[in-house]
């Protein structure tokens, strides 16, 4: 018997749930050949505010978790991606072999960052020599809520900007790739079932030019990653808005996502806490 397939409705991912946009809007997603693929939710500034609230609520618990625990959760995400390789490859489109290679690279990237979770403090922390009878210790701490405008690369690029933010204890609000958002929402389904607390990662789909300025100006956002902003004027206006509460800002750069990522993205949204303690006599 013939049957009608059940078409998937792609929604937002906020606070561990999958709501529709409060505006009720959506936009068509097309393939590289211009063929209709699906409709994705078009987030509004109200959705962006809700995502920031969710990220702020999740921050104390996530930043207070042990680095080892955060690393285990990232590794769990990699495990679940491994089990859904074929689905992600299909959503990425293009040649099957190239798509599978990108999924594999994404899994490897998650494992790489998971391994750094309990080591970054040793690399970035220090015992500082001082002229006095004191111990002086510097340790890295997460910045807070980080807004991330994801690059056009819909999976490897997305994970390459999100993983270093959360592995160090930050929470985030992500604006997914505008033309290719489907892999981001499917990734959200993985996040929702991988022990990652709700609100640590919040994913919005929609117009970059509509969402980025509101996140840049939001007074409860502590960091702003503009990697995916291709419009120079939009990037400049976001930087200017971010200056209102002295957000840490990562400017747009062209990157080879297949290259060794280094630790720069992990340290970009870290603060340094220095503690003085008297030596015992």
TrEMBL record:
Residues 29-249 form the Aldehyde dehydrogenase domain. It holds the Pfam family Aldedh. One of its GO terms (molecular function) is oxidoreductase activity. Keywords: Oxidoreductase. Coiled coil: none annotated. It comes from the Bacteria. InterPro entries: Ald_DH/histidinol_DH, Ald_DH_N, Aldehyde_DH_dom. This is Aldehyde dehydrogenase. It comes from [Actinomadura] parvosata subsp. kistnae.
């Amino acid at each position: 018997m013939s049957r009608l397939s059940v078409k998937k409705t792609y929604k937002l991912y906020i606070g561990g749930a999958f709501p529709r946009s409060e505006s009720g809007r959506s936009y068509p997603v097309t393939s590289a050949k211009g063929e209709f693929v699906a409709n994705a939710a078009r987030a509004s500034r109200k959705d962006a505010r809700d995502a920031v609230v969710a990220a702020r609520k999740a921050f104390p618990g996530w930043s207070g978790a042990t680095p080892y625990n955060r690393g285990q959760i990232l590794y769990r995400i990699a495990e679940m991606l491994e089990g859904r390789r074929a689905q992600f490859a299909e959503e990425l489109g293009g040649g099957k072999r190239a798509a599978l290679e990108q999924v594999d690279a994404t899994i490897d990237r998650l494992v790489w960052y998971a391994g750094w979770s309990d080591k970054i403090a040793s690399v970035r922390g220090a015992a500082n020599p001082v002229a006095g009878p004191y111990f002086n210790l510097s340790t890295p701490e997460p910045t807070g809520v980080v807004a991330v405008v994801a690059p056009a690369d819909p999976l490897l690029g997305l994970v390459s900007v999100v993983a270093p933010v959360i592995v160090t204890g930050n929470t985030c609000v992500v604006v997914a790739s505008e033309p290719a958002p489907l892999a981001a929402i499917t990734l959200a389904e993985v996040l929702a079932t991988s022990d990652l607390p709700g609100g640590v990662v919040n994913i919005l789909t929609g117009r970059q030019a509509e969402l980025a300025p509101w996140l840049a100006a939001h007074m409860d956002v502590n960091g702003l990653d503009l990697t995916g902003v291709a419009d120079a004027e939009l990037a400049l206006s976001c930087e200017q808005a971010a200056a209102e509460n002295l957000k840490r800002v990562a400017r747009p750069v062209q990157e080879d996502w297949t290259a060794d990522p280094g630790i720069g993205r992990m340290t970009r949204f870290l603060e340094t806490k220095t503690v003085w303690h008297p030596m015992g006599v």
